[in-house]
UniProtKB/TrEMBL annotation:
<dbReference type="InterPro" id="IPR050268">
    <property type="entry name" value="NADH-dep_flavin_reductase"/>
</dbReference>
<dbReference type="InterPro" id="IPR002563">
    <property type="entry name" value="Flavin_Rdtase-like_dom"/>
</dbReference>
<dbReference type="GO" id="GO:0042602">
    <property type="term" value="F:riboflavin reductase (NADPH) activity"/>
</dbReference>
<feature type="domain" description="Flavin reductase like">
    <location>
        <begin position="12"/>
        <end position="161"/>
    </location>
</feature>
<protein>
    <submittedName>
        <fullName>Flavin reductase</fullName>
    </submittedName>
</protein>
<dbReference type="InterPro" id="IPR012349">
    <property type="entry name" value="Split_barrel_FMN-bd"/>
</dbReference>
<dbReference type="GO" id="GO:0006208">
    <property type="term" value="P:pyrimidine nucleobase catabolic process"/>
</dbReference>
<keyword id="KW-0560">Oxidoreductase</keyword>
<dbReference type="Pfam" id="PF01613">
    <property type="entry name" value="Flavin_Reduct"/>
</dbReference>
<dbReference type="GO" id="GO:0010181">
    <property type="term" value="F:FMN binding"/>
</dbReference>
Amino acid sequence: MQVNKLQYRQAMSSLGAAVNVVTSEGPMGSSSRAGCTVSAVCSVTDEPPTVMVCINRDSRNAAAFRDSGALCVNVVSADQQGLAQLFSDRDVPVDARFAAARWSRLATGAPVLDDALASLDCEIRSVTTVGTHDMFLCEVKALRMADSGDALIYFGRHFHRLAAPVSSVP
């Protein structure tokens, strides 16, 4: 029995995931930026710290990430839902996306979202194509974390706020 594409997508909408804005500076030495909203990010190992990021291989972003050799996974907060929506809109020019927030840099030179819950600045170690997507295995070279904030989760084809736990430590 073959799994139907639409049924598969419906089943995957039941898998809640953190919302991330993944960014890059484009090809090495260029000043062209790339960025998109991604929920397909997961930890692979902590030694060396490595994450996997999946991007449709036909997108302009995937090509820019491949060419640059570096990317930053910016885990957005619930208060940054508008930014996540902006970075998911293919009709919004890249410059307009980046103009909507403040950015800095860490080790690789990829744009780092200043107010993200966490930012993982990565060198791309390998790329594997599976079906329509490229899987980027990325070694984390630097990171930055916020002190607090509510998470933004994508579940059931909608964004949802996930409240940060209240600390019971005085």
